[in-house]
């Protein structure tokens, strides 16, 4: 996960988080914003009003906030990531309806995995939204799936650049063995590698030429993970990934 800057400015962080919520989810009320940020309603109101002032948000007659002109420009972007996210969201929601566990869509950039879409389970004990978060790729199920698509030379190149000593680096020999197994089985299981007490299972989402462009996963508290359900969970994931791939072919 990304390390916060040494001198983080909380108000800026809150405003940026609200802008991301509006762009990715469409609407927010003051109560929603206050709950999501864990701040007072008055604070959430001031933040949203500043976003309105700078055209990052608009407010309708019912006092609901929407993405403003600045965010709408990005929302209507035809980038691969925005198309991928738009195609995946309905299927993530259906997957959550079926499994009642949180679902995610993740892409890889170098040695990191970024969650670009997340839908939470309705259960009281659940894995929260990971949208916008960045983790070391080898610590996530989707990141492992996407690393498994690389050739031996490509994998070596990903981890060849000099890095700060604090950066989490994998044992490449062990990682190669694990990635070979993931390639054979077509899915990845992450038990507590990215976060203690969380289990995630993922499958690849492929482009028309067969290239894996994202990982689709479900995450759950480890106390609820039952290995006897592995086949059922993987089948549901493959079905959802296939539906995303079908939608992508029509866009």
From TrEMBL:
SUPFAM superfamilies: GAF domain-like, Winged helix' DNA-binding domain
PROSITE patterns: HTH_ICLR, ICLR_ED
GO biological process, one term: negative regulation of DNA-templated transcription
Record keyword Zinc present: no
UniProt keyword terms in alphabetical order: DNA-binding, Transcription, Transcription regulation
Domain HTH iclR-type, residue spans: 9-69
GO molecular function: DNA binding; DNA-binding transcription factor activity
Transcription found in the keyword field: yes
Domain IclR-ED: 69-250
A Pfam family matched in the record: IclR_C
Protein's UniProt name: IclR family transcriptional regulator
Organism placement in taxonomy: Bacteria, Bacillati, Actinomycetota, Actinomycetes, Catenulisporales
